[in-house]
Model the fold of this input.
Amino acid sequence: MKKLLSLIPLILITITVCAQRPDRSVPPALGKAKNLQLPPIQRFTLSNGIQVLLMEKHSVPMIQINTLLQTGAFDDPVGKEGLSNFVMDLVDEGAGSLDALQLADEIEFLGASITSYSGNFSSGINCTVPVSKLDPALKIMGELMLHPTFAEGEIDRVRKLKLTGLLQNYDEPTVIATRAFNKFLYDAGTPYGRFANEQSIKSFTKEDVVKYHQANFVVGNTTLLVVGDITREKMIPVLEKYLASCKTGNITKASKPVPSQIKGRPMYIIDKPGAAQSVIRIGRIGVPRSAPDHDAMVVMNTILGGSFASRLNTNLREVHGYSYGASSGFTFWNVPGPFVASSSVQTDVTGLALGEFFTEFKNMIAPLPDADLTRGKNYEALGYAGNFESNNGIAAALAELVLYQLPDSYFNTYVEKILTVDKKSVEAASKKYIVPDNMLVVVVGDRAKIEEGVKKLNLGKIQNLTIEDILGKKPEFK
Amino acid sequence: MVPYEQFTLPNGLNVILHKDNTIPRATVNVWYHVGSGSEKPKRTGFAHLFEHILFEGSQHVPEGKFDEWLEAAGANNNGSTMEDRTNYYEEIPSNAIELALFLESDRMGFLKPSLKPTTVDGQRDVVKNERRQSYENRPYGKANLELPALLYPKDHPYSWPVIGSMEDLSAASYDDVVNFFSTYYVPGNASISIAGDIDLAETRKSIEKWFSDVPAGKPVTKIDPPAPVLTEEKRIVMEDNVQLPRLTMVWLAPPIFQPGNAELDLVSSLLTRGKNSRLYKRLVYDLQIAQSVSSFQDSKKFASEFYITVTARQGVTLSQLEKVVQEEIDKLKKEEPQQREVERIVNQFESGFVAQLESSGNKADQLNHYYYYTGNPDYFNEDFQRFKAVSRNDLSAAVRQYLKDDARIVMSIVPTGKTELAAKNK
Done:
């Protein structure tokens, strides 16, 4: 009481300062959101045929140059899982006349960074460089792309890093959960549930690496994405100078198998004795990026588990306190990617938490309240501009354009498209894609403490597994 | 480097505005100059628990609406708690600035009527799960909870972890929440910065509109602990459910922006940034006895901490790793680093300074950061010049002065039952 009284004189003073106290009875009305109007996407072709997409952005004196290859982990042949990732890790371990250490020194000295990565369907080399160092940085990037050394010593060294990485996966419940989820979601005949393993990593030879590089670093498989403080006129000569000798040619890729939907409601508990939380993954196979109801699905997922105020997070975190957070998401590929809902929940409420996921899945079938629809649409549409604040973010968006063959008008029209999604299509997407009777459930946790609670839910037959059942035996190597 | 407008409201609130029209968005960022360092005994973790409660509604914002309204406007928001400060931010489309200001001002001025014991209970469970997720269920995570008490004397504000203990989180009461709010969440102890697609004059008017009726409250008594000193080497062995042993070495270092602070940031890069860095090259690249090595300086108001962390390869003992780390530290103490390697690091720092200016959210937070620690919001250039001014000799001197053998923590985390892998006494 004393504290409250002591505030009264101060409140009086502030009233005299502020002529008009604001009306706090309702949140302030918002003006119209500004349109997102990005600079144009400039497309051109180098003399050897490499396609380039460029967007000017002059806010800071930096440039982002990304090489995008349309091959990735899911193109790795059976028995060579992890090869794409292995090769991309090796491209900066020596190239042209420079060894791995010299290369790193030269790049860093420029204040630049050049990193390589391998994703599921794509891979690439990304360069971030101050405008003043564009020429020397691109010279090095060209060497990485076109003349990597692949020295035996480096191959052997990176192999040991990878094998040790496999061993470290045994400590990571979230990695184990994701591996298990993909393994049981996709049939063994598809590449989508496979991952690098001891045998495959040990099998990589220099010949494998060189062949992969020769086959994939060709004009027909390569797109350049350039964003930043540069013009097309200034960029073309530098690209011609260092990348024009990229081999022409196309890649021949087997068409990707379409995965079949999971049947029933298979459940797996993977035992991690002593775990303080249980890592949960629940889901099924979704749709490809080209699905006509993509936008409705995005809005639907935002409502279910795509934001903080979403139903899953509100239920598991705010209402029940079972977890620090819960979410869901569709991954869109050129083939149907996974839908997955996930959380880490405290061990002693694992069964109850699983039950709440299914409660929310079932609730998605009910008619959608207007407030949920508006929030879902606005969150996705009006938040979209945030993706275009950095060179890096824009380059990532351009990569999506290339990988999913979206039109150049896509970014500037997306906001309006999402805002015009109607309720019927979101409700239809819920019914079609959130099917509670047909979900895969994976839990990584302390089996002795969680199994009974999970059984009580009667969701389906539980299969008990060990971490080794998912990751294989621990790798051995010298 | 970042032009800004600054003013103070009669109730004491500091305001910093910066215009950047790159995209039609802006960030509202509020720093309260209180963190876990101001917690009372037996209430560790409280400042962070309180941060959670600030999202649960205020007098004119019913529970749940804070996030719902922001999301319906296309905004993201979050907050974070450290030893020295707590921050909150909204990343918003530029038409929604009024909404963010309404929400921030309501919880700054009108939180109390909405506080309920049940809210505290709900967020207590959430925070305990945050602790489980971020520390207990993460490999090597539990060790981080032990380090503060080893580094600092009992009662020093940095001698307990920000996340707090489960016991203290259980004990936090409704009264604690009310008192903490009245004591620390007053406008004179806060700073709001807005960066992005704004009109400066209009935004100033909006700030005056929404924050002028926030009561000033009482002045905050600042903590002022004596400088901590480590007087011995403490060797600790912990077991964890992990595959590979890990060595962590920690030293105390000078406070942020004080002499020695920039030097040690550079030393950290010299040791572990890039393939040519001293420790990476020897441990991971040449000898291949480590899977990874990292180092960093956690810079804070009353003291900083310098960390080196090395994870062993299979079959390698932490004594083997420690021997090499020690050799490299000793070498830096004796010989100045090469011109080329120092320039390389400074060039990387320079690009980092430029690249961070792409993000309004980052700029808003940095303006508040610099204001809090230096009094000058646009300290970007001064901050970078510190690194340019360091000589090679300064670096060796800093290593000699601060990375001492007889004043540090040497922590071994080994797979359960394998204490023979720990770093042994020399």
Notes: Residues 233-421 of chain B form a domain with the Cytochrome Bc1 Complex; Chain A, domain 1 fold (CATH 3.30.830.10). Residues 117-136 of chain B form the longest helix (20 residues). Chain B has 15 helices and eleven strands.
